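Long-time lurker. I teach an intro course on protein structure, and each term I like to show students one example going from raw sequence to a predicted 3D structure in token notation. This year I'd like something fresh instead of my usual example. Would anyone be willing to generate the tokens for the chain below so I can use it in lecture? Attribution to the forum is fine with me.
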Amino acid sequence: MLIIEDEPLIALDLEDLLGRYGALTFSFADSQRGAIDASRTIRPDFILSDVSLLEGTGPLAVKAICGELGAIPVIFVTATPEACLPCAPPGLVFRKPMDRPAIGAAFRKMAFAA
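-- Reply from a regular --
Happy to contribute to a lecture. Here you go:
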């Protein structure tokens, strides 16, 4: 699991949330370049990403990661869903403030789909 989020408290909150829904291991990145580098170190099986980062964007990081590693399920969590360009591979987009149960349920469905 790779969490791309530039606000540390939100990243930790997402780690706690997804841990409750079955995620076991986490990597974190707070920038587009950091996310790409982290994915090269440990290939993520799932990505949860903010859209706007202090350096770069989550969607561009996800696009680069999937371009190198192939399709990976992704959920975007953002205050600016209209800025989620490009949001590929097809993923879900949730608005902040977070709907924790909806994000958790979507994660379980996507991560544990057969």
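Some talking points for your students: The helical segments are 8-20, 32-41, 58-69, 100-111. Residues 10 and 98 are 10 Å apart (CA to CA).
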